[in-house]
Amino acid sequence: MTAGTLPPVIAIDGPSASGKGTVAQRVATALGYHYLDSGALYRVVAVAAKQSGIAWNDGAALAPLAAALDVRFNSDEIYLNQSVVTNSVRSEDGGIGASQVAVWPAVRAALLDRQRAFRQAPGLVADGRDMGSAVFPDARLKIYLTADAETRAERRYKQLIGKGMDANMAALLQELRARDERDSQRAAAPLKKTDDARLLDTTHLSIDAAVEAVLARYKAVTQL
Ligand code: DC
User: Fold this and answer.
1) Is residue 27 part of a domain?
2) How many angstroms separate the alpha carbon of residue 151 from the centre of ligand 1?
3) How many angstroms is it from 148 CA to the middle of ligand 1?
4) Does residue 102 line the site of ligand 1, with CB under 6 A?
5) What's the 42 CA to ligand 1 centre distance in angstroms?
6) Residue 210 included in any domain
7) What is the pLDDT of residues 164-200, one digit of tens each?
8) Could you list the residue range(s) of the whole structural domain that residue 111 is in?
9) Most Cβ neighbours (<10 Å): which of 117, 175, 191, 211?
10) Which protein residue has the closest C-alpha to ligand 1 atom 2?
11) How many domains does the chain fold into?
C-alpha cells in the first residue's frame, strides 16, 4: 500500500489520566474505526518484566522481551502468554512500570511495528504519548489532550475506587507529576505537543464535549 492509500489515523496524545483513552475509544466507536491503546503495550512490557524478574531499568534485557511479547487484546481483557493480566496492566504499578520501561529507545523500537499493525481500514484512533510525533507522523488529525494535574489525579482516583482498588489522592497527584516529568523529559519520543497537534484542554470539559470536539475537528479536516 502506498502512503496515499493507507487508512487514516487520528492520533490522540497527552499526559496520564487526561481522559484520552476514553475519548479515543468513543471517537473510534463513533467512526467505526479501530482503536490502539499504545500505553497498554508499555504496561504489558512492565508486567512481563516483573513476571520474568527483569528490572524496569534493565534496557538491554527489556528490548528482547518487548520484541517477543505474546500479547493479545480481546474486548476488555488483556492476555499475556495466554493468561489474563488485565488488572495488573491497569494498576498504578503497571503505569509506573510502563513509564520506566518506556524511556528505553530499544523498547520503543521493538513496539513500533506492533503499533503500526493496528492501522487497518477503515481507519484507526490511536492514543499515547508519541502517536502523532513518532508512530503515525502522517496522522490525518493530531490532538494533544490534557487537563491540569489536580483534575487528572481526581479522575484517576474515581476510576480506581470505582474498580474497587485502593487509592490515595495525595499519593496519586505526586505519582502523576513524577510520571509527567519522566514522560516529558526522556530523550526518546518525549511527551510534548507538536506544532501540528490541536490542543484540547479537558479540565472544564465533559467526556461528551471532548468527543464532540474531536469529531467536529475530524469532520473539518476530512472535508478540506
Ligand atoms: O497511557 P498510559 O497511562 O497507559 O501509559 C503508561 C506509560 O506508558 C506512560 O506513563 C508512558 C508510556 N507510554 C509511552 O511512552 N508512549 C506511549 N505511546 C504510550 C505510553
Assistant:
1) yes
2) 19
3) 18
4) yes
5) 6
6) no
7) 888 899 999 999 999 899 989 999 988 989 999 999 9
8) 8-202
9) 191
10) 39
11) 1
